[in-house]
Amino acid sequence: MSGRASVAPMSPQLSAVSAQPSAARARRQQSPRFGAEPSPAARRIILTVAAVIFLIPIVAMVEFSLRVGQPVNGVQGYGVAHYFAVFDPANGSMYRTLFQGIGNSLTICAITVLIVLVLLLPTMLLVELKFPRLRRVLEFICIIPITIPSIVLVVGFVPVYHTVVRVFGSAPWTLAFAVGIIVLPYAYRPIAANMAALDLVVLSEASRSLGAGWADVFRLILLPNLRRGIFSACFITIAVVLGEYTIASFLSRNVFQTSLVLLKSTDPYVAVIFAVLALIFGFVLLLIIGRLGSAGRNRKASL
Amino acid sequence: MTTVAASSAPAATKSDAGPTSSRRRTVAWLGLLPFAAYVILFLAIPAVLAVGSGFFTKEGVFTLANLAALANPEIQAQFFASFWVSALTAVIGAVLGAVICFALLGTKPDGALRSVVDSASSVLAQFGGVMLAFAFIATIGTQGLITKSLVQAGFTENIFNSFGGNGTLLYQIPGLVPPYLYFQVPLMVLTFMPAMEGLKTTWGEANAMLGGTRFTYWTRIAMPILAPAFFGSLILLFANAFSSYATAAALISQGGIIPLAIKQQLTSETVVGVANVAGVLALGMVIVMVILMTAYAMLQGRASRWRQ
Fold this sequence. Notes:
- The structure holds two protein chains of two kinds.
- Chain A is mainly α.
- Helix content of chain A is 78%, strand content 3%.
- In chain A, β1 and β2 form a beta hairpin.
- Chain A is globular, with a radius of gyration of 26 Å.
- The longest helix of chain B has 32 residues, at 21-52.
- Chain B has one domain (65-306): Orthogonal Bundle (MetI-like fold).
- The interface between A and B is large, with 111 and 107 residues.
């Protein structure tokens, strides 16, 4: 082929740069694209079509929540009445279950995050530092909840919770024990990825040899270095708990998702409003995780 | 790493070389206990109870008779429905997701576009559940945006509000396909994108050097290399749809697919005539899932060969 091709290799960076108008056009005319990358036009068309299709249901939810009254002569009236209705004290009894469910979900979030921080994280550190041979075992355990679907685990949770109720009572927070299991794969991955990028053994041995006790190693070395993985694990835990429906519905506890399903039959508009808000909240949480991750990559690259 | 320096000076005096290493190892072993206890109580026991309960009668006597439930035509029909919904949404989802991954190639991995796509995919693929059901009720339900627009456009009886003469599409098993695709495509984007990004620029250059076209690049290089990852992701999508419960439960009140059948059996033992059918169905699901995940792990192993 032409020598030009080898002079101008198509790497992602270069093609991003070549978005500049004239130089790019010249290059595009002279050298054919030979990598896997799509042409800018193809990329734009595919992504635009995908974005439009995926936004339709979200737009439909917003449109639905803005509907006021029945259509008159085929014309639908719109307004924000349903949004205000949420805060109207007169409707307090109607939304009590919903707000109770949200409250319960937040409590379960807090306890599940605590399970991740107090049970999973120290175990991962201990395995990493003292029992590296158990690493594969721990990974396997943490991935099991993906292979055994919640709907199957629930069949076993029902009898287990007969005992849990006897020991801890039937308060909604007890659900956190079961939800903590569902969360394991999601919480494990970011922390493990963070650990793999560091040599924790060397770091802790270095600080030990400089005289630090284990408490100092934990507080001053391990936690600060793992904070990105830990934050990601906590955020993703919150997102999973807020979206959890299967376990709560089978164990007849009132959480956010089960209360949404109940509300759907009495006030579908408000149920849809809260569904949109929850999706947006989850999106923002994950966006923050993404930024945390890429900030970490950039810093490592610059070191 | 500044923290190392900060901590070293004040703590220099309290070195503890005292206890023997064997005693320290015992203490370290004890540290594994809380997590082990938690996993045994809330993962191992429920899993064994779920799968094992299918082998016992109501009185707690071991039996294989309950497995007869798997021969029940109604149960078989629900397994079949689960399989075809999962297969259809996995294939369509994998193809569409792969096309979106292709379109994302060459965009900056840390850029704003990719952040938004990743986060949106993650939300829809992993945490949607009930909320996705609502989204489709508002879109193609009886009063949905698209359904109403079609009615206003003159299609008073359209595919969404009278599907197969059984009323609203969304409340029938085939109606699960659109909402399922809404989480399958994003899951494909999440799982297949790393493989797509593993395609090396040098392979394209080598192909061009040897006189290959873009067509030969795709058919002779990219597709064979991506095949294991593609089929692995396809299997993951199938498993995902097969085990999904919340979306279907929010749309369909009766049975129809296996997760819904488990719910029916747990809440009111019906039709089949043997005990603990929920346990038998759970066992059936776990067998399918273990086969799927084993195949997935094998394909992932093959796929990772090309990454350094």
